Amino acid sequence: MWKAVLEAKRVGARAFGMxxxxxxxWNSKSLDDEAAEKFQSTCQECGFESCYILPHSPYxxxxxxxxxxxxxxxxxSDSKSVYFPPYPLPFISCCLDVFxxxxxxxxxxxxxxxxxxxxxxxxxPGSRVGAISVxxxxxxxxxxxxxxxxxxxxxxxxxxxxxCQGSTIGGHFEELREIIDHITDKSRIGVxxxxxxxxxxxxxxxxxxxxxxxIDTFSKIVGISYLKAVHLNDSKGExxxxxxxxxxxxxxxxxxxxxxxxxxxxxxxxxxxxxxTPYNPDFEDYSTEIxxxxxxxx
Length: 298
Ligand SMILES: [Zn+2]
Prior knowledge:
This protein is of the alpha/beta class.
């Protein structure tokens, strides 16, 4: 994990994002103290403060999952017996529904942040999977976050805006606001603005007026004090396409002029800006895009 810190330093980054476990599995090994200490000391040596490091949740997590929590009796084929709770732990984990597993995962992930000395944790709010109302889904997401807050202190959960693709929650700023309204400890909730997602959701970030309008709208609906980070991605799809398809900076429909405005926007000062752009064989590594973005700053 500490190698991610060195890599961020090597490519000239001043902030970075990372996954704290495998992105596609519910289970993961616990983090040993030695690795956590090594991560913290490397951050210190490389000059990265925790407010510029934004870990990202695994894609499996869905705090808005509509499936009800049913613990089904577990049939053991060898003994032909039906066991009721308490089950041995591995059995529980395969019976629990996505909501409960997501909630447990969030607790575990915030615990990892604590262990690593990190203070921010980015999540995709969730999806109603077409099965429940937006309001109901928002309530579930907020419940999950409130629960995780009650289990792990200090770490701020950062909600990422979405592209309005399918049943995902968070494409409209009003939905982010509504989640925040349900959070008990508002000092530990924030938002990360993803430029590709915002563009796909209908905010035209290709020029100065569009960037200003998006931030004004965000300030009015959510409140600029909740803005904790920006994800910098160009968009493969046109404005309002609702598709979550990231493109390299300057090569999509947002384009360089849009990113010039984003990079020079004073309301984005002092927060981490993180690239999530696709691999590009023409680029050496992220240093190419980082250099390009710095060159846009006036
Ligand atoms: Zn993002």
